[in-house]
Design brief:
The protein is 59% helix and 0% strand. It has 16 helices and no strands. The protein folds into two domains: 3-221, no CATH class; 240-350, no CATH class. It has helices at 3-16, 22-46, 68-88, 93-96, 99-102, 117-125, 128-148, 160-169, 176-186, 190-221, 254-257, 265-273, 299-312, 314-327, 334-337, 341-350. α13 crosses α14 (314-327). With 351 residues, it is mainly alpha-helical.
Protein backbone atom coordinates (compact mmCIF):
# COMPACT_ATOMS: atom_id res chain seq x y z
CA UNK A 1 0.00 0.00 0.00
CA UNK A 2 1.26 3.50 -0.86
CA UNK A 3 2.86 4.88 2.31
CA UNK A 4 1.25 8.31 2.12
CA UNK A 5 -2.20 6.89 1.46
CA UNK A 6 -1.78 4.29 4.18
CA UNK A 7 -0.70 6.95 6.67
CA UNK A 8 -3.65 9.23 5.87
CA UNK A 9 -6.03 6.29 6.15
CA UNK A 10 -4.54 5.32 9.52
CA UNK A 11 -4.85 8.89 10.81
CA UNK A 12 -8.43 9.13 9.57
CA UNK A 13 -9.46 5.93 11.36
CA UNK A 14 -7.86 7.09 14.60
CA UNK A 15 -9.66 10.44 14.43
CA UNK A 16 -12.94 8.69 13.60
CA UNK A 17 -12.89 6.88 16.94
CA UNK A 18 -13.60 9.99 19.05
CA UNK A 19 -16.46 12.46 18.94
CA UNK A 20 -14.08 15.38 19.59
CA UNK A 21 -12.06 14.54 16.47
CA UNK A 22 -14.89 13.26 14.26
CA UNK A 23 -14.97 16.34 12.00
CA UNK A 24 -11.19 16.18 11.66
CA UNK A 25 -11.60 12.57 10.55
CA UNK A 26 -13.99 13.62 7.79
CA UNK A 27 -11.55 16.32 6.67
CA UNK A 28 -8.68 13.80 6.63
CA UNK A 29 -10.84 11.36 4.65
CA UNK A 30 -11.59 14.01 2.04
CA UNK A 31 -7.88 14.84 1.83
CA UNK A 32 -7.10 11.17 1.23
CA UNK A 33 -9.83 10.84 -1.39
CA UNK A 34 -8.62 14.00 -3.12
CA UNK A 35 -5.13 12.54 -3.44
CA UNK A 36 -6.50 9.25 -4.74
CA UNK A 37 -8.85 10.89 -7.21
CA UNK A 38 -5.97 12.96 -8.59
CA UNK A 39 -4.46 9.65 -9.75
CA UNK A 40 -7.65 8.82 -11.65
CA UNK A 41 -7.69 12.31 -13.18
CA UNK A 42 -4.12 11.90 -14.40
CA UNK A 43 -4.88 8.56 -16.04
CA UNK A 44 -8.05 9.80 -17.74
CA UNK A 45 -6.43 13.01 -18.98
CA UNK A 46 -3.35 11.53 -20.62
CA UNK A 47 -3.91 7.86 -21.46
CA UNK A 48 -5.17 6.86 -24.92
CA UNK A 49 -8.65 5.39 -25.35
CA UNK A 50 -7.43 1.84 -25.90
CA UNK A 51 -5.64 1.85 -22.54
CA UNK A 52 -8.93 1.66 -20.68
CA UNK A 53 -9.88 -1.79 -21.92
CA UNK A 54 -6.42 -3.39 -21.93
CA UNK A 55 -5.82 -6.22 -19.44
CA UNK A 56 -2.03 -6.57 -19.06
CA UNK A 57 -2.50 -8.87 -16.06
CA UNK A 58 -5.38 -10.95 -17.43
CA UNK A 59 -5.74 -14.15 -15.47
CA UNK A 60 -3.83 -12.86 -12.45
CA UNK A 61 -5.23 -13.15 -8.94
CA UNK A 62 -5.96 -9.63 -7.73
CA UNK A 63 -7.61 -6.31 -8.53
CA UNK A 64 -4.91 -5.56 -11.12
CA UNK A 65 -6.35 -8.33 -13.31
CA UNK A 66 -9.14 -5.92 -14.38
CA UNK A 67 -9.09 -2.88 -16.68
CA UNK A 68 -8.75 0.83 -15.90
CA UNK A 69 -12.32 1.55 -17.04
CA UNK A 70 -13.78 -1.34 -15.04
CA UNK A 71 -11.90 -0.21 -11.94
CA UNK A 72 -13.38 3.30 -12.11
CA UNK A 73 -16.88 1.95 -12.75
CA UNK A 74 -16.61 -0.57 -9.91
CA UNK A 75 -15.28 1.89 -7.32
CA UNK A 76 -17.98 4.46 -7.93
CA UNK A 77 -20.94 2.15 -8.49
CA UNK A 78 -20.28 0.66 -5.07
CA UNK A 79 -19.92 4.09 -3.51
CA UNK A 80 -23.02 5.43 -5.27
CA UNK A 81 -25.14 2.52 -4.02
CA UNK A 82 -23.80 2.59 -0.46
CA UNK A 83 -23.87 6.38 -0.08
CA UNK A 84 -27.31 6.97 -1.52
CA UNK A 85 -29.35 3.80 -1.07
CA UNK A 86 -28.03 3.06 2.42
CA UNK A 87 -26.77 6.21 4.17
CA UNK A 88 -28.66 9.10 2.57
CA UNK A 89 -31.58 6.92 1.39
CA UNK A 90 -32.13 9.01 -1.72
CA UNK A 91 -31.59 8.50 -5.46
CA UNK A 92 -28.30 7.24 -6.83
CA UNK A 93 -26.23 9.70 -8.89
CA UNK A 94 -26.23 7.24 -11.81
CA UNK A 95 -29.95 7.79 -12.31
CA UNK A 96 -30.45 11.24 -10.78
CA UNK A 97 -27.97 12.85 -13.17
CA UNK A 98 -28.60 10.66 -16.21
CA UNK A 99 -25.25 8.89 -16.26
CA UNK A 100 -27.06 5.58 -16.85
CA UNK A 101 -27.51 6.87 -20.41
CA UNK A 102 -24.40 8.96 -21.07
CA UNK A 103 -21.78 6.48 -19.80
CA UNK A 104 -23.20 3.85 -22.18
CA UNK A 105 -22.76 1.06 -19.67
CA UNK A 106 -24.68 -2.12 -20.57
CA UNK A 107 -25.10 -2.84 -16.82
CA UNK A 108 -26.13 -0.90 -13.72
CA UNK A 109 -24.51 -3.35 -11.31
CA UNK A 110 -21.15 -3.13 -9.56
CA UNK A 111 -19.58 -5.44 -12.16
CA UNK A 112 -18.52 -8.09 -9.62
CA UNK A 113 -20.23 -10.74 -11.73
CA UNK A 114 -17.97 -10.06 -14.74
CA UNK A 115 -14.76 -11.97 -15.38
CA UNK A 116 -12.05 -12.46 -18.02
CA UNK A 117 -12.90 -11.20 -21.48
CA UNK A 118 -16.31 -10.01 -20.24
CA UNK A 119 -14.50 -7.23 -18.39
CA UNK A 120 -12.57 -6.15 -21.50
CA UNK A 121 -15.72 -6.16 -23.67
CA UNK A 122 -17.65 -4.26 -21.01
CA UNK A 123 -14.86 -1.67 -20.76
CA UNK A 124 -14.85 -1.05 -24.53
CA UNK A 125 -18.49 0.05 -24.41
CA UNK A 126 -17.96 2.78 -21.81
CA UNK A 127 -17.57 6.46 -22.63
CA UNK A 128 -14.49 7.10 -20.49
CA UNK A 129 -14.93 10.87 -20.25
CA UNK A 130 -18.53 10.46 -19.10
CA UNK A 131 -17.43 7.71 -16.74
CA UNK A 132 -14.94 10.14 -15.24
CA UNK A 133 -17.65 12.79 -14.84
CA UNK A 134 -19.83 10.18 -13.14
CA UNK A 135 -17.02 9.27 -10.75
CA UNK A 136 -16.46 12.94 -9.95
CA UNK A 137 -20.18 13.51 -9.33
CA UNK A 138 -20.38 10.49 -7.01
CA UNK A 139 -17.34 11.66 -5.05
CA UNK A 140 -18.76 15.16 -4.64
CA UNK A 141 -22.18 13.88 -3.57
CA UNK A 142 -20.56 11.55 -1.03
CA UNK A 143 -18.59 14.45 0.40
CA UNK A 144 -21.84 16.35 0.90
CA UNK A 145 -23.31 13.36 2.72
CA UNK A 146 -20.21 12.97 4.89
CA UNK A 147 -20.21 16.66 5.83
CA UNK A 148 -23.79 16.35 7.09
CA UNK A 149 -23.11 13.31 9.27
CA UNK A 150 -23.00 13.61 13.03
CA UNK A 151 -20.88 11.44 15.29
CA UNK A 152 -23.99 9.66 16.56
CA UNK A 153 -24.80 8.57 12.98
CA UNK A 154 -21.72 6.34 12.92
CA UNK A 155 -23.44 3.67 14.99
CA UNK A 156 -26.46 3.38 12.69
CA UNK A 157 -26.88 -0.17 11.47
CA UNK A 158 -28.86 -1.79 8.67
CA UNK A 159 -31.27 -4.69 8.92
CA UNK A 160 -33.42 -6.97 6.80
CA UNK A 161 -35.40 -4.06 5.32
CA UNK A 162 -32.22 -2.61 3.81
CA UNK A 163 -31.21 -6.02 2.48
CA UNK A 164 -34.57 -6.33 0.74
CA UNK A 165 -34.33 -2.77 -0.59
CA UNK A 166 -30.87 -3.36 -2.11
CA UNK A 167 -32.08 -6.55 -3.73
CA UNK A 168 -35.00 -4.69 -5.31
CA UNK A 169 -32.75 -2.07 -6.92
CA UNK A 170 -31.19 -4.59 -9.28
CA UNK A 171 -27.87 -2.80 -8.81
CA UNK A 172 -26.21 -5.86 -7.32
CA UNK A 173 -26.14 -8.96 -9.47
CA UNK A 174 -27.64 -12.19 -8.15
CA UNK A 175 -24.43 -13.92 -9.22
CA UNK A 176 -22.61 -15.46 -6.24
CA UNK A 177 -19.56 -13.29 -6.98
CA UNK A 178 -21.66 -10.17 -6.42
CA UNK A 179 -24.68 -10.92 -4.23
CA UNK A 180 -22.53 -11.31 -1.09
CA UNK A 181 -22.00 -7.55 -1.15
CA UNK A 182 -25.48 -6.91 0.22
CA UNK A 183 -25.03 -8.89 3.43
CA UNK A 184 -21.46 -7.60 3.73
CA UNK A 185 -22.56 -3.95 3.62
CA UNK A 186 -25.59 -4.51 5.85
CA UNK A 187 -23.39 -6.21 8.41
CA UNK A 188 -21.59 -2.90 8.99
CA UNK A 189 -22.60 0.31 10.69
CA UNK A 190 -21.98 3.72 9.06
CA UNK A 191 -18.51 3.87 10.62
CA UNK A 192 -17.65 0.55 8.97
CA UNK A 193 -18.87 1.75 5.59
CA UNK A 194 -16.68 4.85 5.85
CA UNK A 195 -13.68 2.61 6.57
CA UNK A 196 -14.20 0.36 3.56
CA UNK A 197 -16.11 1.54 0.47
CA UNK A 198 -15.24 5.19 1.06
CA UNK A 199 -11.54 4.80 1.83
CA UNK A 200 -9.75 1.44 1.80
CA UNK A 201 -11.72 0.20 -1.21
CA UNK A 202 -10.49 3.23 -3.16
CA UNK A 203 -6.89 2.61 -2.12
CA UNK A 204 -6.90 -1.04 -3.15
CA UNK A 205 -8.39 -0.46 -6.59
CA UNK A 206 -6.45 2.71 -7.41
CA UNK A 207 -3.20 1.02 -6.45
CA UNK A 208 -4.24 -1.77 -8.83
CA UNK A 209 -4.83 0.87 -11.50
CA UNK A 210 -1.31 2.13 -10.94
CA UNK A 211 0.03 -1.38 -11.53
CA UNK A 212 -1.94 -1.59 -14.77
CA UNK A 213 -0.69 1.87 -15.76
CA UNK A 214 2.90 0.89 -15.00
CA UNK A 215 2.66 -2.26 -17.12
CA UNK A 216 1.06 -0.45 -20.05
CA UNK A 217 3.80 2.18 -19.96
CA UNK A 218 6.57 -0.42 -19.87
CA UNK A 219 5.04 -2.25 -22.82
CA UNK A 220 4.63 0.99 -24.78
CA UNK A 221 8.31 1.90 -24.27
CA UNK A 222 9.70 -1.33 -25.70
CA UNK A 223 11.75 -0.58 -28.82
CA UNK A 224 11.06 3.17 -28.58
CA UNK A 225 13.78 5.85 -28.69
CA UNK A 226 14.60 6.40 -24.97
CA UNK A 227 15.58 10.04 -25.49
CA UNK A 228 12.71 12.46 -24.92
CA UNK A 229 12.06 15.40 -27.22
CA UNK A 230 13.31 17.83 -24.56
CA UNK A 231 16.58 15.94 -24.12
CA UNK A 232 15.86 13.96 -20.96
CA UNK A 233 16.63 10.24 -20.87
CA UNK A 234 13.60 8.05 -20.15
CA UNK A 235 16.01 5.30 -19.06
CA UNK A 236 17.36 7.53 -16.31
CA UNK A 237 14.23 9.46 -15.30
CA UNK A 238 13.15 8.91 -11.69
CA UNK A 239 9.55 8.66 -12.91
CA UNK A 240 10.38 6.42 -15.85
CA UNK A 241 8.44 3.42 -14.54
CA UNK A 242 5.22 5.43 -14.63
CA UNK A 243 5.63 6.92 -18.10
CA UNK A 244 5.47 5.41 -21.58
CA UNK A 245 7.64 8.28 -22.90
CA UNK A 246 6.61 11.29 -24.94
CA UNK A 247 7.26 9.27 -28.10
CA UNK A 248 4.22 7.10 -27.39
CA UNK A 249 0.56 7.77 -26.59
CA UNK A 250 1.27 6.73 -22.98
CA UNK A 251 3.05 9.94 -22.04
CA UNK A 252 2.54 10.77 -18.37
CA UNK A 253 5.38 13.29 -18.07
CA UNK A 254 4.37 16.26 -15.93
CA UNK A 255 4.53 18.59 -18.94
CA UNK A 256 1.90 16.45 -20.66
CA UNK A 257 -0.24 16.03 -17.55
CA UNK A 258 -0.42 19.76 -16.84
CA UNK A 259 -0.97 20.83 -20.45
CA UNK A 260 -4.63 21.53 -21.29
CA UNK A 261 -4.61 19.14 -24.27
CA UNK A 262 -2.42 16.52 -22.58
CA UNK A 263 0.45 17.17 -25.02
CA UNK A 264 3.82 18.51 -23.87
CA UNK A 265 4.61 21.87 -25.55
CA UNK A 266 8.09 20.58 -26.49
CA UNK A 267 6.58 17.57 -28.23
CA UNK A 268 4.04 19.70 -30.06
CA UNK A 269 6.68 22.21 -31.17
CA UNK A 270 9.08 19.52 -32.46
CA UNK A 271 6.34 17.80 -34.43
CA UNK A 272 5.22 21.07 -35.95
CA UNK A 273 8.83 21.78 -37.03
CA UNK A 274 9.35 18.20 -38.23
CA UNK A 275 12.39 17.63 -36.03
CA UNK A 276 13.33 14.67 -33.84
CA UNK A 277 13.94 16.70 -30.70
CA UNK A 278 14.76 20.11 -29.26
CA UNK A 279 18.46 19.34 -29.78
CA UNK A 280 17.87 19.80 -33.53
CA UNK A 281 16.38 23.27 -33.09
CA UNK A 282 18.41 26.44 -33.73
CA UNK A 283 16.45 28.26 -31.04
CA UNK A 284 17.29 25.82 -28.24
CA UNK A 285 19.51 28.13 -26.19
CA UNK A 286 16.84 30.83 -25.87
CA UNK A 287 13.80 28.53 -25.76
CA UNK A 288 11.37 28.92 -22.84
CA UNK A 289 8.69 26.45 -23.95
CA UNK A 290 7.43 23.46 -21.99
CA UNK A 291 10.23 21.91 -19.96
CA UNK A 292 12.40 24.96 -20.60
CA UNK A 293 10.11 27.41 -18.80
CA UNK A 294 12.50 29.40 -16.53
CA UNK A 295 10.44 28.60 -13.42
CA UNK A 296 11.03 24.86 -13.98
CA UNK A 297 13.79 23.70 -11.65
CA UNK A 298 15.17 21.30 -14.26
CA UNK A 299 14.97 23.59 -17.28
CA UNK A 300 18.67 24.35 -17.65
CA UNK A 301 19.74 20.79 -16.88
CA UNK A 302 17.49 19.53 -19.69
CA UNK A 303 18.84 22.22 -22.00
CA UNK A 304 22.41 21.11 -21.19
CA UNK A 305 21.46 17.54 -22.06
CA UNK A 306 19.99 18.62 -25.39
CA UNK A 307 23.13 20.59 -26.22
CA UNK A 308 25.25 17.54 -25.41
CA UNK A 309 23.12 15.44 -27.77
CA UNK A 310 23.58 18.06 -30.47
CA UNK A 311 27.36 17.90 -30.04
CA UNK A 312 27.88 14.16 -29.50
CA UNK A 313 24.76 12.25 -30.51
CA UNK A 314 22.32 10.08 -28.56
CA UNK A 315 24.52 7.02 -28.07
CA UNK A 316 27.25 8.99 -26.33
CA UNK A 317 24.58 10.92 -24.43
CA UNK A 318 23.17 7.69 -22.93
CA UNK A 319 26.68 6.53 -22.07
CA UNK A 320 27.56 9.72 -20.23
CA UNK A 321 24.27 9.46 -18.35
CA UNK A 322 25.26 5.95 -17.26
CA UNK A 323 28.64 7.24 -16.10
CA UNK A 324 27.05 10.05 -14.10
CA UNK A 325 24.79 7.58 -12.29
CA UNK A 326 27.75 5.36 -11.50
CA UNK A 327 29.74 8.29 -10.17
CA UNK A 328 27.04 10.19 -8.24
CA UNK A 329 23.96 9.41 -6.17
CA UNK A 330 21.11 11.45 -7.64
CA UNK A 331 17.57 11.08 -8.98
CA UNK A 332 17.11 14.35 -10.90
CA UNK A 333 19.67 15.67 -13.37
CA UNK A 334 19.51 19.21 -11.97
CA UNK A 335 21.02 17.85 -8.76
CA UNK A 336 24.23 17.27 -10.70
CA UNK A 337 24.08 19.64 -13.67
CA UNK A 338 22.89 22.65 -11.69
CA UNK A 339 20.85 25.67 -12.73
CA UNK A 340 23.07 27.01 -15.52
CA UNK A 341 23.08 25.15 -18.82
CA UNK A 342 26.62 26.29 -19.65
CA UNK A 343 27.88 24.75 -16.40
CA UNK A 344 25.74 21.66 -16.96
CA UNK A 345 27.19 21.15 -20.44
CA UNK A 346 30.72 21.54 -19.04
CA UNK A 347 30.04 18.81 -16.46
CA UNK A 348 28.72 16.49 -19.16
CA UNK A 349 31.71 17.16 -21.40
CA UNK A 350 34.09 16.32 -18.54
CA UNK A 351 32.44 12.99 -17.77
Amino acid sequence: MDKDWAQMNKEMQALLAKETTFKDAISKLMELRGSLFAQITQIVNVFPEEAFWQMPFAGADGYHSKTLAYSIWHIFRIEDIVAHEMIAEDQQVLFAQGFDKTVHSPIITTGNELSGNEIAEFSKKLDVKELYHYAQAVMESTHQILEQLQYTDLKRRFGDEMIAKLQRTGCISEDENANWLITYWCGKDVRGLIKMPFSRHWIMHIEAMRRIMNKLCKTARKGVDPVAYCGLSCNHCFLGEWCGSCRTSYNTCSNAIFSPDGICPNVKCCKEKGINGCYECDGLESCEKGFYVPSNDGANAAKALSLYIRNHGKKEFLKVHDRLHQKYDFSKTQEILGQDYHEGLRILEEN
